[in-house]
Amino acid sequence: MKKYLLLLLFSSFCSITIFARQATVTVGRTTVEGLHVMEGLTKIHPRLSWQIESAQRNVSQTAYQIIVASSMTTIGQNRGDVYDSRKVNSNQSINIAYPLENLLSCRPYYWRVRVWTSKGASRWSATGKWSMGILNDSIWKADWIGTEKILKTEDPYNPFTRLAARYLRKELNVSSKPIRATAYIAGMGLYELYINGLKVGKHVLSPTLKEYNKEIPYNTLDVTSHFNDGRNAIGVILGNGRYFTVRYSKDGGMAAGNAPSTHYGFPMLKMQILLEYANGAKELVTSNQTWKVTSNGPITANNEFDGEEYDANKELVGWSSPNFDDRNWQKATLVTPSATKLVTQTNENIAVKDNLVPKTIHRTKNKTYILDMGQNMVGWLKIKVRGKKGDTIILRFAETLKNADSLFLANIRSAKVTDKYVLKGTGEEIWEPRFVFHGFRYAEVRGLKYQPKKEDFTGRVVYDDLPTIGSFQTSDKTINQVYKNAYWGIIGNYRGMPTDCPQRDERMGWLGDRSVSSYGESFVFDNSRLYAKWMGDIESAQKESGSIPDVAPTYWKNYTDNVTWPITFLVIPEMLRKQFGDTVTYQKQYPNMKKWMLYMWDTYQVDGMVQKDTYGDWCLPPENLNIIFSLDTNRNTKGPVIGAAYYYYALSLMKNYANRLKNSGDYELFDGMSKKVRAAFNAKFYNREGGFYANNTVTSNLLPLTFGIVEEQNREKVFRQIVDRTLNLYQGHVSTGLIGGQWLMRGLSDNGRPDLAYKIATNTTYPSWGYMAAQGATTIWELWNGNTADPAMNSGNHVMLLGDLLVWNYEYLGGIKTDQQDVAFKKIIMDPYLAPALTFVYASTTSPYGKIVSNWKKNDENFSWEVSIPSNCKAILTFPVSSFTAILENNKKLTELNEIRYLHTEHGKTYVEVASGKYTFSCKLDLLQKP
Q1: What is the distance between the alpha carbons of residues 646 and 651, in angstroms, rounded to a whole number?
Q2: pLDDT reported for residue 24
Q3: 522, 426, 513: which is closest to 845 by C-alpha?
Q4: Nearest-CA neighbor of 493 among 473, 518, 469?
Q5: Measured between alpha carbons, how far is 100 from 84 in angstroms, rounded to an integer?
Q6: How many CB atoms lie within 10 A of CB 822?
Q7: Which residue in 543, 488, 483, 535 sits closest to 514, CA to CA?
Q8: CATH pick for 470-810 out of 1.50.10.10, 1.10.8.870, 3.40.50.1110, 3.30.300.20
Q9: Which class does domain 140-347 fall in?
């Protein structure tokens, strides 16, 4: 992320940081650094944000002034010829909506801000920039082009589809070098853009995925530096992606395994490039029938699941440079897209984010080589090889080994996960695929006739190009390893949508997998644009009736009308509000949420409840290490309990949304419904004699307890059942699946047993996250017994079973939590759980206001706590001592510090309010409240 820094005129040096990515508009996309804009409501109102960085304490903003200009020259003079807010008395520094409606399509805008604070006024910041996209369909002048001719080597209707990449090109003359050139490109299913022989941008596997029968995404790219005066050439390679769907059959049915059946058409291109010159002239270059196209290039086959095949002998040398001989290429033909609606891509593109070198290379008895990357990763191999012309190098990928000499591929199911490279025999050759990715730790290499070196292979780690904003470490190695595994699992499943797994013939956006996981992820990554975009995918997939699918985009057509998967459409907008201050997403989606709620009520309400459930407490730990699903009815939570409890939770969310939108009618509607559901739930499922719900599983008790269904006088009884079963029946281990696990760690902690949550977090025996790590896992398994269960469903890279673990790590062990009303960490609640076995916890996350740090340590005598609060924020800190005077900050009593205000002491804890700044607190260990 590019930062714009400026020293300010405070009594000591400070700085403002402007994030251009926070300039957000209804349609359009910034062209700086490949950053994106988000979708607004009905008007074009970019949202602007900045961060105030200061070495001083107690810095709070009192006013700001924003200027927006049409050129760098004008903004450099601190003039806003497009907009000048003048001085605005406000402490708001994030998500400030641009108030006018004077922004034009395809225009860059430059902005600066200055602020007034409690410590003085700043100078103008450095310049931020955003670019408007195509706001009116009439501006599109390009045609959809491609070719649907089939080569003899292609077999698009085979269940294992073979379709070569399409290469398209166009040459043109320009009278002078443009001062600005902007490309608007929709390449289905995937594209790479080249100008004058050079690839544009660092992104890969672009654009990211959509509901292609409803809308097609386009990217906006600044290509100014790529154009020369005189002769220029433009080239585009089109891969298949999810647009031309693998496993496709002529009748449109599902052809193999559990693979996608949705097919949208052959790869195609729509692009226009706006050239702007110093004399004010403009020129538009468009895709049309004057372009040339061929399928007879080196990428002879590509699809996401089966791999990519490349014949270096068919390379088209110079194909994207001027004066290439394309006489044997065809004229591009006009083609029909799957949808007419073009929309800007609102989330980050995918990029190569890291590189790994194999830890070991093993020569097998079959004269192949097996690489161990040392880490279960997602991406592909870049290879450096040599051999004779026509020699073929075959690469296959797996997460685990069957034995020392072979890969374990049973859990990959029907995916072939095989890349092929045919050498041209000209010495050392370097190659990597373009339109495929694999989930793997191990790779088998066939076809080499010599002993390779580790340096001949590079694991290209690929995921969405979003910022990593969090870090977390403790004195416990199990917690640390599980956090690392979670990190790698999350990045392995960021693909322009949150996928379930990256390795087998699935890779789908299951809604239920990320309901609460997205919340934990938000401490580690700025996933705000990714999840706002995904809510748009779900909106596109929603039926007119209101029904929401279990998978979005709907490459699998799963509309089972359960409650727990579609409710993600209601849950994630609340996460975006709390963690990032995004109020646009829930406002935009509110009518669609309401439509789903009423559809479910009208269709499935029985006895005052919606009890519809499909998946139960998915993937709870089975009693047998060799089975996938538990057969023990005492372990399985009944579906009606889950469905009814979650529908009540959905009503609570809708009440809050309606209240914020000042929609009193809807609030009364949902409040009345929730009262009916609560009464009916307790009447049907609560066992008053036993003090538990349904069949007394942890999940059946945890859900009503967490959602507020349990009557106040019964809460202690119900929680006692949760503790008893966890400690005695399951020996302190997790017994929940995907559903119960979303609330387990916080549910235990909030009701007085954080020690039991800590035990679950640090277990290394089955079932536990630590068990996975102890068995050598470097990501999170799909099953608690993923090393022994049936291969049909034991992905080694799922994050659904993380539940609320990452939330618990940050909010409870680290003690970093946003206030429910002063969201986005404007007001921070810091109350770490000082687990007896831990000697330190370091947690940090970068909020929209700046970096937050909680770093506590304890030894036999002392407790210390280093805290960083961003400027323009405040925090409520909780100390586990009953004496305010016992707490020191940098060896000073708190009564001597103006930045700290005593609030109250309660239950042996002292609460203080702290202004922005960096602090080091300490107190004697013998004064600590005993856990």
Answers
A1: 9
A2: 27
A3: 522
A4: 518
A5: 10
A6: 14
A7: 535
A8: 1.50.10.10
A9: mainly beta
Residue 150 is encoded by which pair of tokens? 């089939």
Q: What is the pLDDT of residues 257-312, one digit of tens each?
A: 444 567 799 999 999 999 999 999 999 999 999 999 999 999 999 989 999 999 99
User: pTM of the predicted model, to two decimals?
Assistant: 0.94
The residue whose two tokens read 């990320």 is 514
- DSSP assignment of 810-867: IIIIS--EE-SSSTTTTEEEE-----TT-SEEEEEEEETTEEEEEEEEE-SSEEEEEE
**For residue 4, pLDDT beyond 50:** no
In this predicted structure, the answer to whether residue 39 has a pLDDT above a threshold of 70 is no
Sign of the CA dihedral running 456, 205, 241, 528:
positive
The residue assigned the tokens 């491609």 is 146
Instruction: Give the orientation angle of helix 715-724 with respect to helix 698-707, to 10 degrees.
Output: 150
Q: At what angle do helices 568-580 and 584-604 cross, to 10 degrees?
A: 160
The count of other CB atoms within 10 Å of the CB of residue 820 is 11
DSSP state of 919: E
Residue ranges per domain, the chain? Answer: 4-131, 140-347, 351-464, 470-810, 817-927
Same fold, 351-464 and 470-810: no
Strand partners, 183: 221, 273
CATH topology for the 4-131 domain: Immunoglobulin-like (2.60.40)
Residue whose tokens read 């340590």: 857
Instruction: Report CA 845 to chain centroid distance, whole Å.
Output: 16
How many Å apart are CA 425 and CA 865, to the nearest integer? 62
Mean pLDDT for the stretch of residues 455-483 = 98
- Is the distance from CB of 188 to CB of 243 less than 8 angstroms? yes
Element (H, E) at 354: strand 350-356
Whole-number Å distance between alpha carbons of 747 and 750: 5
